[in-house]
Amino acid sequence: MSEALHWTAYYKEMEKNAPLKIYYPICGGGEECIFVCPYADSIWEVVPMEVSLFGVRHKVRLRPFMANPEACKKCYLCVQACPTGALRPAEEEIKRPALVLLYNALRLPFKKRYGLKFVFRKEHGEKFKRNNWPERYGVV
Ligand code: SF4
Predict the structure, then answer these.
(1) Does some domain include residue 140?
(2) What is the distance between the alpha carbons of residues 9 and 94, in angstroms, rounded to a whole number?
(3) Which of 69, 83, 101, 103 is the most exposed place for a label (fewest CB within 10 A)?
(4) 73 lines ligand 1 (CB under 6 A)
(5) Which residue, 30, 2, 39, is CA-closest to 130?
(6) Tens-digit pLDDT profile for the chain (140 aa)?
(7) 58 touches 52 (CB < 8 A)
(8) Is residue 139 part of a domain?
(9) Domain limits at 118?
């Protein structure tokens, strides 16, 4: 699966018709968004793409992508659950991604819902490892 597209291809695809956007360079790949989405199976896919992890080392990683955005009910649970601020409503711009990441990391201990305890759940840790080092798991 060495023909993974650059993350901007998926970003642009979601820009066309999805109610959400994902700024992939600050997405951690823990799949918290997919975990909380009530319609995850009909909306989300996890796809290989060329992207860095928090701006470090660009390579093929697995990341969430809205394959069927028309099934989204715009409840924004996934946006609330995103620990990094990478996922947000389509109309919200990300002007300074590094600051967005820092802000969201600092507020994580104070979030009542989807805070540190949620992010460090075993299943998210496993997704984080698999999605950031997929070659070790034989996934790419
Ligand atoms: S907004 Fe709600 S329905 Fe849409 S992808 Fe997020 S969690 Fe799922």
Answers:
(1) no
(2) 17
(3) 103
(4) yes
(5) 30
(6) 458 999 999 999 999 999 999 999 999 999 999 999 999 999 999 999 999 999 999 999 999 999 999 999 999 999 999 999 999 999 999 999 999 999 999 999 999 999 999 999 999 999 999 999 999 999 88
(7) yes
(8) no
(9) 5-134
Is residue 66 one of the residues assigned to a domain?
yes
Assess whether the C-beta atom of 74 lies below 6 angstroms from ligand 1. Answer: yes
Strand-pairing partners, residue 94, are none
CA of 119 to the centre of ligand 1 (A): 18
Number of domains into which the chain is organized: 1
Indicate whether 87 belongs to any domain: yes
With a 6 Å cutoff on the Cβ, whether 72 touches ligand 1 is yes
Amino acid letter, residue 40 = A
Report which protein residue has its CA nearest ligand 1's atom 7: 37
Which among 39, 41, 42, 65 is the best mutation to test ligand 1's pocket, defined by most ligand atoms within 8 Å of the CB? Answer: 39
- Tokens 């970003």, residue located: 11
The alpha carbon of 136 and the centre of ligand 1 are apart by a number of angstroms equal to: 30
pLDDT at 3: 81
